[in-house]
Write a structure and sequence with these properties.
Shape of chain B: globular
Number of domains of chain B: 1
Number of helices of chain A: 10
Number of strands of chain A: 27
CATH superfamily of chain B: STAS domain
Helix content of chain B: 40-55%
Structural class of chain B: alpha/beta
Number of helices of chain B: 4
CATH topology of chain B: Transcription Regulator spoIIAA
Number of strands of chain B: 6
Strand content of chain A: 25-35%
Oligomer: heterodimer
Distance between the termini of chain B: 30 Å
Radius of gyration of chain A: 42 Å
Strand content of chain B: 25-35%
Largest interface: A-B, 28 and 19 residues
Distance between the termini of chain A: 120 Å
């Protein structure tokens, strides 16, 4: 029968022995097979002897007699698993089994148990935060570091602490070098003394942290590095070993799947909310555009806005005030909710300013003064603003940092370069604007657009460009305004050939035939 | 878009490369922020390797110009190709910036 002897001394680590050979002496003497350094133990205290394949225990006349299961041992007795011997203050238990785990073996068992427990926890209905806390707590039980941290990449791609644990409490600082090495490069780290390690010595963040021992594993899945788990020690005494790292790697790979799944689920939920809000914002923005165009005999006017994202920074509007037809095509810097809001303000200002305005330059100046007020974020709007007197064809145009208007007439499409260049709206509140006055020929079409048209690119990265834009306008110049607008937009779609639009596209075309003159 | 940063003669030089559009403008903003936030910043932005700048990029330059002005510093732009210059021109921005032909000229002009 094989037996093991588990020795527990007061205030000391437990030890285990396999009962081996023919005889084992228990005593204080260093020559003893089982040494118990206790003043109440005799040099040769007791003896274990094998007889007929059984182990017997015999007291060797110790000053403090050996106890077997609480009773003084007066003569040799056979031992079996479960027996207890008292030798001085030490308690010796006999247990079954041949394989005595060494100290390292016991630690391995503890590591296996920890990994198993964490695997079970992965399946449990814990939140990610609870799971990460549990992982750190279990790692502390087994590896006894001074501090531990789990960092995960946030939605913005930045690594942030997701769980921390520190002996005695308090915040945990993770040296930048450790983050770079493990979470960025994806390399595990097993460092006995950071001061002498080629990856970490010479790192100021490492030195100032005072960290000496490190065991750290990247949290990785097939798509890349999600974060890291690191346990650190500031005393050189606590040195981590390869099997500590092995355990951490196992835990990290198990956690990676859960982290990725959680992130995907949260992303999906967040994206649904954002998409829903963007849809609403898009609807609100589109509702601001004029649904119907003013109708007058001989007047042909049409416009189209194609937002690049759900909400955009482009704007057009048309207001008929008596015989005067006011119109604007504008582009807010950037494409975002902020740009869309700024666009909504610009449009409200245009509507508020136009009725009874003395001229397009006054409309631009008043819009500019309002948009420039408290404009800390330096948003701005480029705008082409015009006014056509339908009774006589007089056209006024002002340029607030926008593309020059184009006039298509017969076979020619040209930019109206006579409009004085003014600054985009919202930049400097006192910026002056100057209008140009001209006659719009009854056979000519005025075309206003945003830079999204010429800048539209195909999958090869080639821009649509001014020449193609003018060709597209020229090709439809004899058509009613709505057909011209649709066919130019179609030409851009065909050119882009499926490449996603990077900018809003806005186009307004206006013609005033001779009938009303 | 890549951004190369250099310091010469007491002047910070930032040289973006590629397209500055609504996606990459925030990168430029991030790199400009610490430079324009310095005490009396002296900054050159070199557009020699910029193919395109959108209105979002213009806004970032406008923000930088304002910060530099508030801090009592100096900002110079240089190396603008025809395409980039046209975008500045169209928005009416050319008069708002101190623009030099070459980097040397820009650095010399605002060096302490």
């Amino acid at each position: 029968m094989t037996l093991r002897l588990r020795v527990q001394v007061p205030m000391g680590p437990p030890a285990e022995y396999v009962l081996d050979g023919e005889e084992m002496v228990i005593g204080r003497a260093a020559s003893s097979a089982v040494v118990i350094a206790d003043s109440r133990v005799s040099r040769q205290h007791a003896r274990l002897v094998r007889r007929d394949n059984e182990w017997w225990v015999e007291d060797l006349g110790a000053r403090n007699p050996t106890l077997l299961n609480g009773a003084p041992l007066r003569h040799p007795q056979a031992l079996r698993a479960g027996d207890r011997l008292d030798v001085g203050d030490a308690v010796l238990r006999l247990v079954d089994g041949a394989t005595a785990p060494t100290a390292a073996g016991a630690a391995d068992a503890a590591r296996m148990w920890t990994v198993n427990e964490i695997h079970r926890a992965l399946a449990a209905p814990l939140s990610l935060a609870e799971l990460l806390d549990l992982i750190l707590a279990r790692c502390f039980d087994v590896l006894d570091p001074e501090e531990g941290v789990i960092m995960l990449r946030g939605r913005d791609g930045v690594l942030a602490q997701a769980a921390t644990r520190r002996r005695g409490g308090g915040p945990v600082t993770v040296p930048r070098r450790l983050v770079d090495e493990v979470a960025v490069k994806g390399e595990p780290a097993l460092v006995l003394d950071a001061a002498g390690d080629e990856r970490f010595a010479g790192s100021a963040s490492m030195v100032s942290s005072g960290i000496r021992g490190i065991v750290a594993a990247p949290i990785v899945d097939a798509d890349g590095t999600l974060g890291l788990i690191a346990l650190c020690s500031r005393v050189a005494v606590r040195q981590f070993v390869q099997s500590d790292l092995d355990m951490l790697m196992t835990i990290a790979s198990a956690a990676a799947l859960r982290v990725r799944n959680t992130t995907l689920a949260e992303d999906l939920a967040a994206r649904r909310i954002v998409e829903h809000e963007l849809e609403l914002a898009h609807d609100v923005q589109m509702a601001m555009l004029p649904r119907t165009m003013p109708s007058r005999p001989g007047l042909s006017i049409a416009a189209m806005l194609k937002p690049a994202r759900s909400v955009g920074g482009d704007l057009y509007d048309v207001v008929l005030d008596g015989d005067r037809l006011w119109f604007i095509v504008a582009d807010v810097a950037g494409k975002s909710i902020a740009a869309a809001l700024y666009m909504a303000i610009a449009r409200a200002l245009f509507r508020a300013t136009v009725p009874g305005a003395g001229g397009v330059q006054h409309v631009a100046a008043r819009m500019n003064a309002e948009l420039a007020r408290d404009n800390d974020r330096m948003m701005f709007v480029t705008a082409a603003i015009g006014c056509l007197d339908l009774s006589n064809g007089t056209l006024w145009l002002v340029d607030a940092g926008h593309l020059p208007p184009m006039i298509a007439s017969g076979g020619a499409v040209f930019s109206v370069t006579s409009v004085p260049k003014g600054l985009a709206l919202g930049v400097i509140d006192t910026s002056p604007y100057e209008a140009v006055e001209m006659q719009l020929d009854p056979n000519a079409t005025l075309v206003l657009c945003t830079d999204g048209l010429a800048d539209a690119r195909n999958v090869e990265g080639e821009s649509f460009g001014d020449t193609r834009l003018r060709d597209a306008i020229r090709a439809a110049v004899d058509q009613p305004a709505d057909v011209l607008v649709a066919s130019v937009m179609h030409a851009i779609d065909a050119f882009a050939a499926g490449a996603p639009p990077e900018d809003d596209l806005t186009l307004l075309a206006l013609r005033c035939g001779g009938a009303i003159r | 878009m890549q951004i190369v940063e250099a310091r010469t003669g007491g002047v910070d030089v930032l040289a973006p490369r590629g397209r500055i559009d609504s996606t990459t403008a925030s990168l430029l903003d991030e790199r400009l922020a610490p430079l324009v936030g310095a005490e009396r910043p002296r900054l050159v932005v070199d557009f020699s390797n910029v193919d395109y700048i959108s209105s979002a990029g213009l806004r970032i330059m406008l923000l930088a110009a304002r910060r530099v002005q508030e801090a009592g510093g100096h900002l110079a732009l240089c190396g603008m190709g025809a395409a980039v210059r046209q975008v500045f021109y169209l928005a009416g921005f050319l008069p708002l910036f101190f623009i030099c032909a070459s980097r040397d000229e820009a650095v010399t002009s605002i060096a302490p």
